Amino acid sequence: MKKTMSKTPRNKFTGILAGWDDLIQKGYGLEVSIDSKTAERNAYGANPDLCSLFAKLLGQIEKNFDTEKSSVNLAKSNWELRRALEIRKSNPSREKQLEKRVAKLSASYEAGVRDCGPLKGWFNQVPAASGYFESRQNRKNSIDLVHETKPEKEYAFIELKLDPNSGWPFYATFEILSYGFLYLFTRSNASLRERFKSPKEKQDGVLKAEKIRLIVLAPESYYSKSEQSVRVLDEFQGSIDSALREFVEKTVQNLEMGFEFRKFTNPVTTKEEIERFQGFEPALLGARLDEHI
User: Fold this and answer.
1) Dihedrals φ, ψ of 137, to 5°?
2) Is 39 helix (H, G, I), strand (E, B) or coil?
3) Of 4, 82, 167, 181, which has the highest C-beta tally within 10 A?
């Protein structure tokens, strides 16, 4: 009789982020994949030592980084503010459609088109790890949306979610944290600082930032499907934000980094609503879960 083998959960984080799944699972006492609904149900009741977990997550990136390989494979496009506007008509991803819609409207606004809403300084698919590990790894590690609030001073890194099928709030939190930690690693690594310090490089402004906001931005329906109350999500958000601020203050000089869940204040859940989208109203980055802007 054949033995049925238990299926090992596929790691969500690979390449330069390999090992993150295990660290997060251990930190939160999870025995399931970090992107599962079970993890979403169980994680909020845990009480992890977040500063210790954050140190391990950053340490794992440092451990994975191969100076010799990265010197050859490091993509020049990392941390470059760009707008990737093309999308296949056959692409069914509403998140991709909305992300590109925001970037396209921002480009149009800056070009002088004034009937598209004040969307200045929005960029999409900003690479954050290409070549940090191996040439073929982490090519798709790109930040969904980046908002340049104040050039060379303040930026928002945004993980865009429209439906839990692409990741529940718990997993989305660590998705956007991964970009934040890759940023911390880049800022604190001498060889990478040297690589990106030229004023001719488009990355230079982002890597001089004094403040970075890490945001999971989604419709209210996305959070409600999590089956967690606003209070539970708000408490979780607050614990991550507080520990992150404390950790970053000790890790990188002259940098403030925080975390937030935010929700759209205008409808963006259907293809038709995305096509009608003209800007964030009334709040630039959506509203907090408790309705405050």
Assistant:
1) -100, 145
2) helix
3) 181
Residue 73 has a CB neighbour count (10 Å cut-off) of 17
Name the β-bridge partners of 216: 159, 261
Task: Tell me whether residue 114 is in a domain.
Answer: yes
User: Residue 9 domain-assigned?
Assistant: no
| Cis-peptide, bond into residue 151, ω within 30° of zero | no
At 14, phi and psi to the nearest 5?
-135, 180
Token digits for 182? 């890759």
Tell me which residue has tokens 């699972």. Answer: 25
**45-64: pLDDT as tens digits:** 999 999 999 999 999 999 99
Do 123 and 103 form a contact (C-beta atoms < 8 A)?
yes
Q: For residue 280, what pLDDT band results from cuts at 50, 70 and 90?
A: confident
Residues in the chain: 293
| Overall domain count for the chain | 1
pLDDT 10s digits, 156-181? 999 999 989 889 999 999 999 999 99
Residue 291, phi then psi, degrees to nearest 5: 85, -15
CA distances from 252 to 61, 186, 213, 215, 255 (A): 15, 10, 15, 20, 6
Evaluate whether residue 174 is within a structural domain: yes
Write out the residue range of the structural domain in which residue 277 sits: 15-288
Tokens of 214: 């890490």
Order of strands across the sheet with 211-218?
Answer: 122-127, 142-150, 154-160, 211-218, 256-263, 287-288
